[in-house]
Amino acid sequence: HAPPCPAAYEELEMKHLLAAAVLAALATTAGAEDKPKLTVYTYDSFTSEWGPGPIIKSAFEKQCDCTLTFIPIDSSAGILNRVQLEGKASKADIVLGLDYNLMALAEDTGLLIDSGADLSNIALPIEWDSTTFVPFDYGHFAFVYNTDILAEPPTSLDALVNAPDDLKIIIQDPRTSTPGLGLLLWVKAVYGDDAAEAWKKLQPKILTITSGWSEAYFSLFLNGEAPMVLSYDTSPGYHMAIDKSEQYQAAAFDEGHYLQIEVAALLKSSNNQELGRSFLQFLISKEAQSALPLTNVMYPSIDIGDALPIGFSKLIKPSKSLLLDTETVRDQRKEWINEWLESVN
Description:
By secondary structure, this protein is of the alpha/beta class. The protein contains 13 helices and twelve strands. Helix 8 crosses helix 13.
């Protein structure tokens, strides 16, 4: 028989290559479908390209031989609302990014189950006794200021409240923002029954109230719209480590600073509880925790030693960690937000 002409040979070869590619794709898809899957609801900045999500996903998938999927939601309150609406039909196995203030509310749903995690290495400013929630990072709320504009910031919350009205600050709404709620609770922890009066004194100094942290910090504060913004005591650590700049610093307040602890938890309805518990344990491993300071810009919840960026050693050290009981926050939150609304409007 005569050999095929070159064109016919190339066509035959192309068909073989295409068939091989299709078979390889089918094998890959089948392999992926065979792998166990874990779905995690978290807030959107956690999953962003500069957040810790991609790093943690890659590292955990290598360890578990599974497929880890993060579903971004706009806020920690939004995460809780989503699983409440979905109930037992939720696609999520894990919720990641609730904070201490929402724990009692989340536990009341009856949707969560014991984490099974070994929490003996947890190192927080407070003792941790919950077995349902796994704390993965923490920080304190603080007013970050631009040293090029404000040479001498207030040294206490009371000094800020009573500062001249031409000192402008940017804060966030407690109904939509975790830092906004943090400031609400900070004022309540310091002033108690006099909180409404403190808010009235603070109101003329508020340049604007944003719905979220990113708008307040990136869009307004870093563009010089005001010399101070509500943020975290850890924020300057990022600027020092990444920008190599000490221009932005947190003001240390004499009364102490309100503490935020971020947590993750396993859903009772999960069909992958064993894998979910493995993920929660991985979340507080040194490998995962070392990714957090410069991606989530928070303190890790365990001691990571030399892995903590140098800039974090220069951060303010709050004289006291203020924290209202999570059950009290659950019971009083709506009343306190109404008090805030009446005082700042």
